[in-house]
Amino acid sequence: MSKVQPRTLSGFLELLPEEQVLFDRILGSLRDTYELYGFTPLDTPLIEASEVLLAKGGGETEKQIYRFSKGDADLSLRFDLTVPLAKYVALHAGQLTFPFRRYQIGKVYRGERSQRGRFREFYQADIDVIGDGKLDISNEAEIPSIIYRAFTDLGLKRFQIRVNNRKLLNGFYALLGQSEKAQDIMRAVDKLDKIGPEKVQEILSHDLNVPSADAFKILEFTRASGSSQTVLAYLEQYRGRNETFNQGLEELSAVTRYLSAFGVPDTHFAVDLSIARGLDYYTGTVYETTLLDHPEIGSICSGGRYDNLAEYYTDKQLPGVGISIGLTRLFYVLQEQGYLNEDLTTAPADVLILPMTDDLGPAITLATYLRSWRLQAQIYTEPKKFKQKMAYANKLGFQYVAILGEDEIRQGKISLKDMDSGEQLLLTKEEVRGEITTHTCLKDGTKPIVDKGE
Amino acid sequence: MSKVQPRTLSGFLELLPEEQVLFDRILGSLRDTYELYGFTPLDTPLIEASEVLLAKGGGETEKQIYRFSKGDADLSLRFDLTVPLAKYVALHAGQLTFPFRRYQIGKVYRGERSQRGRFREFYQADIDVIGDGKLDISNEAEIPSIIYRAFTDLGLKRFQIRVNNRKLLNGFYALLGQSEKAQDIMRAVDKLDKIGPEKVQEILSHDLNVPSADAFKILEFTRASGSSQTVLAYLEQYRGRNETFNQGLEELSAVTRYLSAFGVPDTHFAVDLSIARGLDYYTGTVYETTLLDHPEIGSICSGGRYDNLAEYYTDKQLPGVGISIGLTRLFYVLQEQGYLNEDLTTAPADVLILPMTDDLGPAITLATYLRSWRLQAQIYTEPKKFKQKMAYANKLGFQYVAILGEDEIRQGKISLKDMDSGEQLLLTKEEVRGEITTHTCLKDGTKPIVDKGE
């Protein structure tokens, strides 16, 4: 038979089993964190009517979208989890209870130009809190605590959550008489990290026709640094001159005030006036999160406050705040930078049972016993030599191997080998269970990421 | 602004939050079972090159497929998890260790005619064991034990795993001199449950030109019933007359012999000679699973043994055995038939904290404390009346509400209300933690399905 060459599309991440175990551990840890904060899981279709998905229309996104026909239907694959959330809330508003707090972890699709570390299919892990008409500012302070907890529980240490407020920026640009250009200015300022201050100044002066003195002030404003208190004190000089600015200052103060009660240490938080976020969508607090030892990676968790989640679908005012983690890219980057915990067990089970007799009965009975105690057990079933069976156990990284030869069966015991220490003990099944249980309990605390940064 | 009507495509299941929690519990329980038996998780792209996905070609599937172009690429959405597995194993064979045991739970796409209970996007939950050249028969005996454990852990009681062996059928048809028609006969026999014996006989006699006497024998063969031992004894009459039949009988005997060691009770298992499975792909043991109180639903978990997983991609001989659960349809059916556990808590968190003062500080501090102990806590942040806050707690089904008014704050205590009993206690934060911890530990044992059948 002529064969088809098996291949996986470029831009689509397909992991080997050991990598997949690590990826799933990260995903599971994020899910646990989100649930710790009272978010409910959501799952929406990957395919939506194009009319619905592209209601907002225009922009870079539309070019990248996977869009196709099936019968009469014009369909598209989702490119983020925010638009499906907007649709979901608009559609089911009558059956939801507000504030509505949901998390969603799922794949999204963007037909980007294929390049190293860029993916066309990737996981996003989002949380959002949606209010009905109103939403208290404390929600904007809770978000950094969720980011902090999420990354800390994964094992990351050296990261910083940077916060700004778009009302401050809008107010400040209004003070300079540049209100109409506010969105364009923010999009330029958002590029600071990528292209540097000179090029941003050039965009402001040349492309946007902002007077040089104002462009200078805009850049100076982004540079205010120091502790949150220092930056808030710096901002005081503009208080009372613009309503929007004042409101932004109040909000930013409230967010920083609540932070320590939310358990976020000063070391992991900064007010950063250069954070703007490119999307027009955001109206208040905005977030970015950077790895201190790898700023070149850019933000690994971003988001912000918005006033109107679903304006394309409903007249209902639905303000909210949310963040998104680009999980596939994060995993790729952490792997590249050597952050993944190589000591984490990726074996398919807690123990591999090696039957050394033709009759697999005793091995099966042992497996059934261990599984009844919720211990993961795999039986090596193939009639191979002992050496090959041990090689299998080694390759897959099993911690324990339970050997059942004629001697063991006659004595009603099991030889349990610890593959790390090489130690082998002749034990009863209850002792085997005890030994493995102790080990799996210790194992549970192992984090998928090792952050060696000082 | 003119609005776009929000909608979800027909044939795509989109659940409300309470339903989603239940669905996720079922999915999580299946994952736990699969891992208990030593299967490693896998995740493959939803999109593949059409050439790769349709390597086998033809059939009903191709008509139903979501196929489209992006740039020069001819792409398709996966319609099952078996073809992507075949591609994965053929592509990565050099980096895998055999026997390779993987599970995959993910969405697949089939553009079926839209009707009640039929889905175009649905989850499959698959396991497969793939051998390199060979695979021991004991793997075929382990599969029913996984099915048994999976459904039992979900809470199902009244179900039966039915097993047959295609070698028996092939051998028996050969005895009748109907070898060339074996595949067609099996496809007809596979319809027994749906269309009844008269119509199957008609297909055999008229469409397939099987002589009446033989058609009668074929149907008679499917009716052999009783305990596994009785059916095996019935089959003995044909032993020694056909090599394939003998082999099938050996395999079926081995499978039933190992079953009790694997912990499958007789009540949940039957040898059923009418099970054929439509797919040509299967070569040995085949499985179906039916709800005893709802046979009309058909099989809720099916699969079988195959000799050549990836023949379209590689010369490597990759025999295997696997099963698949159509999770979306199963969930839909269980919901329709009232099997879902309505007592299962679907609240977003273990406790809802109600701050009764303007300063949310004490509520935030309490939430942070409880979360540090891995208890799920949500703060109700909106400045509403007490009654409205309690209505929120009620609607979302919170078990506990922690009230923090001026009195409580002054005393350094919390009023903890049990929403079930109505009891309200004034407690320290440590006592609150103890109370909720006790409850969540009990809760963990609750199963998502309640099977009231006797």
Helices and strands in order, then pairings?
Two copies of one chain form a homodimer.
Chain A: H1 17-36, E1 40-41, E2 47-49, H2 50-53, H3 59-64, E3 67-70, E4 73-77, H4 82-92, E5 100-109, E6 121-130, H5 138-154, E7 159-165, H6 166-175, H7 182-189, H8 192-207, H9 212-222, H10 228-235, H11 243-259, E8 269-271, E9 282-291, E10 302-306, E11 320-326, H12 327-336, E12 351-355, H13 361-372, E13 377-379, H14 386-396, E14 400-404, H15 406-411, E15 414-418, E16 424-427, H16 429-443
Parallel strand pairs in A: 1-5, 7-8, 12-13, 12-14
Antiparallel strand pairs in A: 2-4, 3-4, 5-6, 6-11, 7-9, 9-10, 10-11, 14-15, 15-16
Short description:
2 copies of one chain form a homodimer. The first copy, chain A, is built from 16 helices and 16 strands.
Considering the chains and any ligands shown, give keywords for the structure.
16 helices; about 450 residues; homodimer; alpha+beta
